[in-house]
Every structure is written in C-alpha cells, then in structure tokens.
Amino acid sequence: MAEEIINRVAQSKLMVVDLEDYYPEGERFVFDIKDWLFEGFVLREKEFRQLVKDYDWSVHQNQFVALTCSTDAIIPAWAYMLLTIELQPYVRKVCVGDLETLETSIYQDIITALDVAPYKDKPLIIKGCAHKPVPSNAYIMLSSKLKPVAKSIMYGEACSSVPLFKKK
What we know:
Elements: H1 8-11, E1 15-17, E2 28-32, H2 45-54, E3 64-68, H3 77-87, E4 93-96, H4 99-113, E5 123-127, H5 136-146, E6 152-157, E7 160-166
Parallel strand pairs: 1-5, 2-3, 3-4, 5-6
Antiparallel strand pairs: 6-7
C-alpha cells in the first residue's frame, strides 16, 4: 500500500509574499527627448517649449513613463519638470530614468502602501524567480519593510529557500 503524500508546506504557517502579485499592468514607455534637442545635444528653450506645446500628450493615457535623454546632453531640471507637468493628467506614473528606474519607482509606491499587519510574527518566504520585470530594489525594499514584523524571512521557493532573517 502506497504512503499518502502530505504537503507539509501547505500545512505550515509559512506565508509566501510574491512581488509579481503586486505588478501593475499597463504600458511602460521611455520618452527620449534627444529628438527635441538641437543636433541631439543642445536644449533651446524656445524651440523646446514649442515642441512641448504642440505635442499630443494624451497618447500616453494610463502609461507608466520614464523620461530620459540617450545622448550626453546636459538637460536642466526644469525641462523634465515641464514634461512631467504636461504628462501628469494622462499617465499613471512618471520619473526620470530608464525602465528599471521606473519599475523601482512603481514598486516603491506599492511597498510603501503595503499593509504588513497580516505578516506580523509569521514565517515568510519572499518568492523569487519573477516572470515579470520586478527590480532587485523591490526585494530590498520589501525585506526592509517586513523585517520589523516578521518572525522569519526566507527568499526563494518553499522547497529551496535561503534563510535571511530570524527574530531572536
């Protein structure tokens, strides 16, 4: 007679925290302003402001936008601020940087708002192996937020986790 297989992970008090569960769907867009610069390097205020005025900002409705300049141009802070003011009514999030910076900024908001009460005095596994673009910084922010409340924190999968923290 075969022995019954028992799922000890399912029976344990172990809680899995998967950052993919919090991944907000929506298009990510990198807005490169190099084409709005004279010869790709010089920001001429009058021309730049005209381009900003003439641009159809509504094409970015509900997007997450990263503002960048892919050339070595020196971009004054006010230029990114002006673009943000125009984008703000349409986008879900805007930041200066690349896609990883954008994802980090998105997750920073999510983790800041995360209710950690359900994790109080519980053994936790922060699930790894993401299929969505979860930035490394999100794992750092999450572990910092959970450490004060968790009984223990591990990383990985229940079958092969790496212990990170255990309350004394």
